[in-house]
């Protein structure tokens, strides 16, 4: 399941932020790496809501949940449980 979530998320990032999938760091901050900005975080939250049916609250949008691709995948998995 995690690979499916990660795959959908990487496709979304590549498609919406004009970056190649193999250039997306999995353990680094997408903001720190210059791939997204703060508006990108909002787009990611909207994607999670529409793709996985998970309402992302503003207070959940922290580095511990959204700090990297792996952390975002873990967040989605945790919300689905």
CATH architecture: Orthogonal Bundle
Tell me the CATH superfamily.
ACP-like
Poorly predicted ranges: none
Instruction: Using the alpha-carbon principal axes, give the shape.
Output: globular
Radius of gyration: 11 Å
- SSE string, helices as H and strands as E: HHHH
Average of per-residue pLDDT values: 94
**Main β-sheet description:** none
- Strand coverage percent: under 5%
Structural class: mainly alpha
Tell me roughly what share of residues is in helical segments. Answer: 55-70%
Tally of alpha and pi helices: 4
The total number of structural domains is 1
How far apart are the termini?
A: 12 Å
By CATH, the topology is Non-ribosomal Peptide Synthetase Peptidyl Carrier Protein, Chain A
Provide the CATH top-level class. Answer: Mainly Alpha
Number of strands: 0
Quick description:
With 81 residues, this protein is mainly alpha-helical. 58% of the residues lie in helices and 0% in strands.
